[in-house]
Design goal:
Layout lengths: L12 E5 L6 E5 L6 E3 L6 E4 L5 H20 L3 E5 L2 E5 L1 H10 L3 H31 L4 H10 L5 H15 L4 E4 L2 H18 L2 H8 L15 E2 L6 E2 L3 E2 L5 E2 L11 H24 L3 E5 L2 E5 L1 H10 L3 H31 L5 H14 L5 H13 L5 E5 L2 H18 L3 H17 L1
Antiparallel strand pairs: 1-2, 3-4, 5-6, 5-7, 8-9, 10-11, 12-13, 12-14
Helix pairs in contact: 1-3, 1-6, 2-3, 2-12, 3-4, 3-13, 5-12, 8-10, 8-13, 9-10, 10-11, 10-13
Length: about 425
């Protein structure tokens, strides 16, 4: 059930300032099946859907119990010249690291091993903080930071792509531990949905009361904990900080744009060798066959696996390139005050945030292929030099998207509306 949100007064309400468009609105007390959207940009301000922290901790504990089976035990197996070869998440990362590709392996390790485990541990630490009466400011901040980097769902799709890719080399079979991996991915996704960080901030810091009346001046808002307040905290250097999470406020616009441009330009540079150099090399009877990103897609088309070719092309080529063009477009709009549809700009902004992580699909496939096919002299598989550049491009563009402040677009829109009113 969706409750439309209007800027009106309610008997039970609190005031919130949208972190995406700077609109100040009144948010009513929500029921369990309701959520409140900003009437200006349609961004979700808060949600009544949540599980209590005890239940979330139990789900996190279940994830940690399943992790050794999901990460260390074989998920796929092939019969390669009479020899059974198994593939697991950890084995693929380890082989890549020990066979000359430690930086690429580290990128995969972060998203497929370290971040999922850290996410579950942090949820359990939150529950312990609740039981011990500790204020877990850093834990709540860390949870918000690492959520975009937990990519079990992407790895699950990578498993499907790998199945199609190894069929041409050997007979493929699925292992029972794949069930543990699937359940881990599903539980992690469920925990994402039901862990309400905004509500947890309010639970752990009740002394930082929510605004209940519309102030005369627009209130401040923290982009990290989404707290709306009127009086910021002044640190020893007289800098304004959020009174709840102590995050530095009012970072200069030029600094934000510099961060966005720096990571975006670095990502663009990395994308050139990522597309031009070989992504993988397969040796059959000593004869090498190198595949770039595009030639790998063409190989799937020649095999008749059109859907897999579409998935790989979308995740490995279309999404990284389109994400760069979208960010360039949004930055140009900010710098040159271009008059464009704000709804269209915000839709592009949300697309960039949603699809960016799926570009890691190709690296996960490479890790699985390393553990499955890298055997003996007859068939051998090696990661190409493009793999690291591709992973670095994905990371840099994700950071660039997270650094971009959509409120800059709304400031241009507001100025244009004011000018239109005055000219009219």
């Amino acid at each position: 059930m969706t409750t439309p949100l209007k800027t009106t007064h309610y008997a039970k309400q609190h005031i919130a300032r949208c972190t995406h468009c700077d609109a100040t609105v009144s948010v009513p007390t929500l029921e369990a099946n309701q959520y409140a959207e900003c009437p200006r940009c349609d961004e979700m301000l808060c949600s009544g859907s949540r599980w209590n922290l005890h239940r979330c901790a139990m789900i996190a504990l279940s994830i940690l119990i399943l992790m050794p089976f999901a990460l260390n035990y074989p998920l796929l197996s092939i019969d390669l010249l009479g020899t059974r070869v198994d593939a697991s998440v950890w084995q693929g990362v380890w082989k890549m690291a020990t066979e000359g590709y430690p930086y690429t392996a580290f990128l995969i390790f972060l998203c497929a091993v370290f971040m999922p485990i850290s996410f579950a541990i942090l949820v359990i630490l939150l529950r312990l903080s609740q039981l011990l009466g500790i204020k877990p400011r850093n834990i709540l901040l860390a949870l918000g930071y690492i959520k975009p980097w937990v990519m079990f769902d992407v790895y699950l799709v990578a498993l499907g792509v790998t199945m199609f890719k190894v069929r041409e080399y050997a007979t493929l079979s699925l292992d029972v531990y794949l069930i543990a991996f699937i359940f881990t991915a599903l539980l992690t996704t469920l925990l994402f949905i039901k862990l309400n960080l905004n509500a947890l901030w309010n639970d752990f810091y009740p002394q930082d009361r929510l605004l209940t009346e519309m102030p005369d001046e627009p209130p401040c808002v923290c982009l990290e904990c989404h707290y709306t307040f009127t009086e910021p905290y002044q640190d020893s250097k007289h800098r304004a900080r959020c009174p709840r999470c102590l995050t530095l406020l009012d970072v200069p616009v030029n600094i934000k744009l510099q961060h966005t441009w720096a990571t975006l330009i670095a990502g663009i540079i990395m994308l050139f060798p990522a597309n031009l150099l070989p992504m993988s090399v397969v040796y059959v009877n000593g004869a090498p066959s190198a595949d770039t990103l595009m030639s790998g897609v063409i190989t799937f088309v020649e095999m008749g696996s059109y859907f897999v070719a579409f998935v790989v092309f979308t995740a490995s080529i279309f999404i990284p390139i389109s994400k760069i063009f979208i960010l360039l477009y949004l930055l140009i709009c900010v710098h040159f005050n271009l008059r464009q549809s704000i709804k269209w700009q915000m839709r592009l902004f949300h697309i960039v945030h949603f699809v960016g992580r799926w570009s890691m699909l190709d690296l996960f496939v490479l890790a699985l292929m390393m553990s499955l096919v890298a055997r003996g002299q007859i068939i051998n598989f090696s990661v190409g030099p493009a793999a690291f550049y591709f992973g670095a491009a994905v990371f840099l563009t994700m950071i660039s998207a997270s650094q971009f402040d959509s409120r800059l677009l709304w400031k241009i829109y507001d100025r244009q509306q004011q000018n239109a009113v005055h000219s009219g």
